[in-house]
Specification:
With 383 residues, this protein is an alpha+beta fold. It contains 12 helices and 16 strands. The strands form 3 sheets. Strands 1, 2, 3, 4, 5, 6, 14, 15 and 16 form a 9-stranded mixed sheet that branches. It is elongated and about 80 Å long. Bound molecules: (2S)-amino(hydroxy)ethanoic acid and manganese (II) ion (2 copies).
């Protein structure tokens, strides 16, 4: 993250943009407007990613923001532009996502700061270990001079490729729930324990994973993923006494998502009691679905059209920092096509021509907003 901050600072320095790091580790770079004191438009995305990731998820949105400033070639707009690089969006280390952007929304507080990683290090300690001061988190919260937030991001799915389109305007982001589910049974000898006397935690977890897949397959628009499973003691000749796994469940309707989460938690209890196991479920996240700003989304469609492309509106199945900022300021997203629909994997890619289109779209969008006084005259902090 430090190297990433240094690289961005070097790219922003020739644009006379000084970078700062807030108490949550987010990078900020302010490109001034035509005069001091004008409100600001935020453009950015996250700098962190997932294990064995691709090279574009998150970081592309930050580098595109830098590219837009370069393309302005010193031209100043009626509003300032603040480049944002969020510190922790994926939730890989602490299990719960959007830690950086929640600081801007003024929601990085007590319980979340005490959340611990696999080594028992809390978010608060991680902030201190990075040389930052958790007591200064309040200063990271957005001021009321913020007009809105734009995030360029790869689609991470197959839709744009299927439609042969380079860009899309995102109208909403699906809600997501994350759980840690713990099955406990009785470790025992793999050779001497008859099948009917076993309390096999992995076998119980496996039955439940199958149930989760069947619920998602039979519910249109629902996705359920068990991405991580750890078992103890983890030896080939020992029946597992414990199996700990994660559940990630998403849908554009909160009602359907929450009902499916309830059903799956109930199913875990049923499977556990039938197998004389115990099971616990810890909710790590319940993030509601978020509508993005209709005015900005409309402007994005116009800007996409000006690049000579047909604008496509779509729902994002992936979560983004925009869903946190959208709770306080008008927020909108532009998707870039993901070749092969592959993401969260080294095969993740973008087409150079699509990045070029995204930069053109961004310049049209800035020009449209600069010529829309009712956009920049009144900061829209939703409060
Ligand atoms: O998991 C997601 O939706 C995103 O990659 N943070
Ligand atoms: Mn991601
Ligand atoms: Mn992302």
């Amino acid at each position: 993250m430090r190297d990433c901050h240094h690289a961005l600072a070097e790219w922003l320095e020739p644009l006379e943009v000084k970078t700062t790091i807030d108490a949550a580790g987010n990078l900020h770079g302010l490109y001034p407007g035509i005069q001091a004191g004008v409100p600001r438009l935020l453009i950015g995305s996250h700098l962190d990613t997932v294990p064995n990731a691709g090279a574009y998820d998150g970081i592309l949105g930050v580098v595109l923001a830098v590219a837009l400033l370069e393309e302005l070639q010193g031209k100043k707009l009626p509003f300032a532009i603040e480049v944002l690089g969020f510190s922790e969006e994926e939730g890989v280390r602490f299990g719960t996502p959007f830690i950086g952007s929640r600081a801007l929304a003024g929601k990085l507080g007590g319980e979340l700061l005490d959340t611990r990683d696999a080594q028992g290090v809390s978010v608060r300690s991680a902030i201190e270990n990075f040389g930052l001061n958790p007591e200064e988190l309040a200063q990271a919260a957005l001021g009321d001079d913020t007009l809105g937030y734009l995030e360029f991001h790869i689609e991470q799915g197959p839709v744009l490729e299927d439609r042969k389109l380079p860009l899309a305007a995102v109208e909403s982001i699906a809600g997501q729930s994350r759980f840690e589910i713990n099955f406990s049974g009785r470790a025992n000898h793999a050779g001497t324990t008859p099948m009917h006397l076993r309390r096999d935690a992995i076998a119980g977890a496996a039955e439940w994973i199958g149930a989760a897949e069947r619920v998602a397959q039979s519910t249109p628009g629902l996705v359920a993923t068990v991405g991580k499973i750890e078992s103890k003691p983890g030896a080939a000749n020992v029946i597992a006494g414990n199996a700990r796994l994660t559940l990630d469940i998403r849908h554009s309707s909160d009602t359907i998502r929450l009902r499916a989460a309830e059903d799956l938690n109930r199913e875990a209890q049923k499977i556990a009691s039938r197998r004389r196991l115990s099971v616990s479920s810890k909710q790590l996240l319940s993030q509601r679905a978020v509508e993005l700003d209709p005015f900005l989304t409309g402007e994005i469609e116009k800007a996409i059209r000006k690049t000579g492309c047909e604008p496509h509106r779509m729902v994002s199945g992936a979560g983004h920092d925009a869903m946190i900022l959208a709770q306080t300021i008008p927020s909108a997203m532009i998707f870039l096509r993901t070749p092969g629909g592959i993401s969260h994997d080294p095969a993740e890619s973008v087409a150079v021509e699509d990045v070029e289109k995204a930069i053109q779209c961004g310049l049209h969008l800035l020009n449209q907003l600069a010529n829309s006084p009712d956009f920049y005259n009144v900061p829209h902090s939703k409060g």
